Amino acid sequence: MHLCSNGRCLNSTKYKMAINHIDMSFNLEIFNVNNLDLKLPYICTCGIYKNKQHIAPPVRWSAKTDTIMLRETNSLICEYHSDVACPSNADKIWRYTNTDKMLCSNGSCFNEKYKMTFDNNTKTDGNAKISILVIKNFTEEDVREYTCSCKFVSFTKTLEVTNYINMPENLKSSAVYRDNQVIIEISTEKVFPILKCNETIFETLSLCHNSLFCNAHSSSEKKYIRQDMKVKQSYGTTVSNFTFYKVQGELIVDTNGITCSTIALEVKCFVGNRPFIVTVLTEIRCNDIETIGQYIPSASIGLVFIIIIVMICICCEFKMRRKPKHLLCKVKDLTYNKLCKCFNNGQGH
Fold first, then answer.
1. Contact of 287 with 208, CB cutoff 8 Å
2. Beta bridge partners of 192
3. What is the reported pLDDT for 20?
């Protein structure tokens, strides 16, 4: 396909051909360079002579990572490959292309959303110098054309986003106990891709503090459960060529008869390759016996028994004094005296 011939171009808005008749040289100028322009080979022909080359602009920029994180910080990296085209003391500028609005110049930015830094230690290609445009709280509106320039040399292209992650917005979670199961509800108003939850750390803290009143299922323990969250509802919407999902999911965990405990659950979820933790709490009520045990510390049980024995002995002594003694009570031996008191109390005479 011919782009230009003898100074005339088929697409004058994209290409321009200039001929220098003094030294018999000519050049091709390409506007709004994109990724496809950089990948294509270009053939220059003069008579029977041909020369094939790829574009190697002295200035070009690219996204720092292949995956764009929405609502987070992302960076664009501009590389200056020629000391002639871009001297160290030349002005280095980032701007919007369509509005020609300047964003940053020589490290100073005109909006707190942006930050411009330099990194001469990073060598991505030969001896390239690096300037970085940091874009904070990246949104759909930040997908646009950017121009990075040094002196009179500039490079313009549209930021192309094919891979992106939007962490859950308006994330809600809850847990309820029902029929020996904990039902965990997780929902979000906006996420991409769809979140997945498949691992739960299940930790119980017993509310029964007296072992005499507790059953075997009210002990404190910690265990791991692998179980995929069931997506109950999801639907997608498209905003500025970005797709987002609204998701409502449910995760059911068996409690295996646990009673009288607080249950803390940490659910491990993923959005793409980004993990995050959802923490929920619920409580399993104690039965009547376990409830009584909560108010009687284990250390007090022995004291309670001693008090009961003392009260019984006092009662026996009081009743014995009010009633005739049995024949055995005349025996002087201390052991018989004790038996006598109990006997009198039991016989009623």
1. no
2. 166
3. 77
Query: If you write DSSP's letter for every residue of 49-86 in order, what string do you get?
Result: EEEEEE---SEEEEESSSEEEETS-EEEEEEE--TTTS
CA atoms within 13 A on the CB side of 114: 22
Bridge partners (DSSP) listed for residue 79: 60, 130
Class of residue 224 by CB neighbours under 10 A (exposed 0-12, middle 13-18, buried 19+): exposed
**In 3-state terms, what secondary structure has residue 211?**
coil
Domain boundaries, the chain: 4-54, 61-161, 166-293, 314-349
* Closest listed residue to residue 60, CA positions, set 35, 40, 42, 43: 35
Q: Phi and psi of 335, rounded to 5°?
A: -65, -45
Q: What is residue 160's DSSP assignment?
A: P
Residues 6+ apart with CB under 8 A from 136: 73, 112, 113, 114, 115
Q: Hey, what are 188's tokens?
A: 């979000």
Cis-peptide, bond into residue 324, ω within 30° of zero: no
Averaged over successive runs of 10 residues, the pLDDT of the chain (349 residues) comes to 86 86 78 74 81 72 92 92 72 85 92 89 58 94 91 85 94 91 93 91 76 61 84 86 93 82 90 93 72 53 62 66 48 44 48
pTM: 0.64
61-161 belongs to CATH 3.40.710.10: no
Fold of 166-293: Immunoglobulin-like (2.60.40)
Contact indicator for 32, 157 with CB cutoff of 8 Å: yes
Contact criterion met (CB below 8 Å) for 181 and 200: no
Q: Is 262 exposed, middle or buried (0-12, 13-18, 19+ CB in 10 A)?
A: middle
Q: What is the largest CA-CA distance in the chain?
A: 148
Peptide bond into 168 cis (omega under 30): no
